[in-house]
Amino acid sequence: MSILAIWMILGSGVTVDTTGMDLEGALFGIVGLYAFNAFKVIAGLIEIVINIILLAVPYYYLHNAVRNFKD
After folding, report:
1. 50 membership: H or E segment, kind and range
2. Distance between terminal CA atoms of the chain?
3. How confident is the model over 7-19, as pLDDT tens digits?
4. What burial class does residue 26 get, using C-beta atoms within 10 Å of its C-beta: 0-12 exposed, 13-18 middle, 19+ buried?
5. Is the pTM above the cut of 0.70?
6. Cα–Cα distance measured from residue 13 to residue 34, given in angstroms and rounded to the nearest whole number
7. CB neighbours (10 Å) of residue 21?
8. Do 65 and 44 touch, CB atoms closer than 8 A?
9. Is residue 10 within 8 Å of residue 23, measured between CB atoms?
């Protein structure tokens, strides 16, 4: 929402600063960075879930093997 507010305050003019980017290009660059960082966060959360699953499977296998060995 703040990106939209910046867009409305600055206007959609074609002014060029020292970087050579217009406001629309800068806005889409910021949106792209936000999207990329959101993707990294989501990928990290998925990685945590996968690691939990991969660590739980051998634990349950070993737990059942020990229980069957005792019986």
Report:
1. helix 23-70
2. 62
3. 666 665 555 555 6
4. middle
5. no
6. 23
7. 14
8. no
9. yes
